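Hey everyone, long-time lurker, first post.

I ran two proteins through the pipeline my lab uses and got sequence/structure pairs for each. Pasting them in order. The first:
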Amino acid sequence: MAQRGFNRKFEPLKILSEEKIKAIHKGVLDVLENTGVRFESENALELFKDHGCEVDLEKMIVKV
């Protein structure tokens, strides 16, 4: 059976170092935990709340 799609024959570009990737990841986790993300869907807010996340229903902010 023939393969479909594109097979890359070269290594992807490495724009960021591992250290910078880890710093971005740490920053994202910090925002999710301390700042939170706004969700305008009441269903989403309830789902996060039901699964143990900190939810401010008035401000529509979820902290993971």
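...and the second, right after it:
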Amino acid sequence: MDAPTREGFGVACQVGLALNQPTIGVAKTPFYGRIEDDRVQSPDGELLGKVVRAGGGKAFYVSVGHRVGLEDSDRLVRRCLVNNHPSPLREAHLEAARLRRGLV
């Protein structure tokens, strides 16, 4: 996927478009915009994403990917919380750690 990114078109969009599959953007840290009342907004006030707070106040930043709207993305991430983490994000992290151990 060598296509250049542009504002509002992140990795989740690119992967979803390339695979023609629904995707959702989820991050552990904000990468763009400002946070106001659990909403991620662009400098001009456009809604870019939402903040999902898990137990203990841990925040995850949700944005649209491909073929899934923001409200559905927010709802799905909340339903996937297991042990205060979105399950797919945790599984990806664990798999990356497993692969890294195999390379060392």
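Reply from user beta_strand_b:
Welcome! Quick read of the second one: The radius of gyration is 14 Å. The domain at 11-103 is CATH 3.30.2170.10 (archaeoglobus fulgidus dsm 4304 fold).
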